Amino acid sequence: MVSVKICGLSTPETLDAAIAGGASHVGFVFYPPSPRAVSFDAVRGLTARVPARIAKVGVFVDPCNALIDQAIESGALDAIQLHNVTPGRAAALKEYSRREVWAAVAVKTRADLDTASNYRQAADKILYDAKTPDGALPGGMGVRFDWGLLDGFQHPLPWALSGGLSADNVAEAVRRTGATLVDVSTGVESAPGVKDVDKIAAFLQAVGQL
């Protein structure tokens, strides 16, 4: 069975589509430069709609402790997804937040994959995402990496696949990599930061048929 995280949700309609379609995780972005960023007040209303069976994931880029506090208070988040943090910082935030930690590893080459082992004691899950160009947002750019890089790779932790996924390619991605958890954001949007209920439904249906 393959599970799905729909990330970057910001409206009740799209959140409800993710819930109705069978998403296992829903993600909320706490990074103001992102077009998917949500306010604490908005998250408070959104997370109240999420059934207990679905995990709520807060997405952060090198956050301070105060931001983590505010996010948890607004959404009772089950996990925190960290981009651009060192293993040491990830471990510190895991202890501080008392939440499950996902460490994002930006991938372009096999050497990038090897950095995942540094998070073995610092995180609970690795999120393999495509490395974006210098100066770009660390995720949510619709970029994919070469899935063949994962061939024979010994994963140090449970992991999820992200980066450029859509309803059209997720079946291929799962067959190619063996992923049991996939994470989509841009692939279910009609414009940057604008989730599309039909695309969410199509993605979840595509995974459900695997």
Write the topology of this structure:
Elements: E1 3-6, H1 12-21, E2 25-29, H2 40-47, E3 55-61, H3 65-75, E4 79-83, H4 87-97, E5 100-107, H5 110-114, E6 125-130, E7 159-162, H6 170-177, E8 181-184, E9 189-191, E10 194-195, H7 197-208
Parallel strand pairs: 1-2, 1-8, 2-3, 3-4, 4-5, 5-6, 6-7, 7-8
Antiparallel strand pairs: 9-10
Helix pairs in contact: 1-7, 2-3
What does this protein look like?
InterPro entries: Aldolase_TIM, PRAI_dom, RibuloseP-bd_barrel, TrpF_fam. GO terms for molecular function: phosphoribosylanthranilate isomerase activity. Its EC number is 5.3.1.24. Pathway: Amino-acid biosynthesis; L-tryptophan biosynthesis; L-tryptophan from chorismate: step 3/5. By secondary structure, this protein is of the alpha/beta class. The chain has one domain (3-208): Aldolase class I (TIM Barrel, Alpha-Beta Barrel), CATH 3.20.20.70. Helices cover 31% and strands 23% of the residues. It has helices at 12-21, 40-47, 65-75, 87-97, 110-114, 170-177, 197-208, and strands at 3-6, 25-29, 55-61, 79-83, 100-107, 125-130, 159-162, 181-184, 189-191, 194-195. Strands 1-2-3-4-5-6-7-8 form an 8-stranded parallel barrel, surrounded by 5 helices. Strands 9-10 form a two-stranded antiparallel ribbon. The longest helix has 12 residues, at 197-208. It is globular and about 40 Å long. The termini are close together. The relative contact order is 0.17.
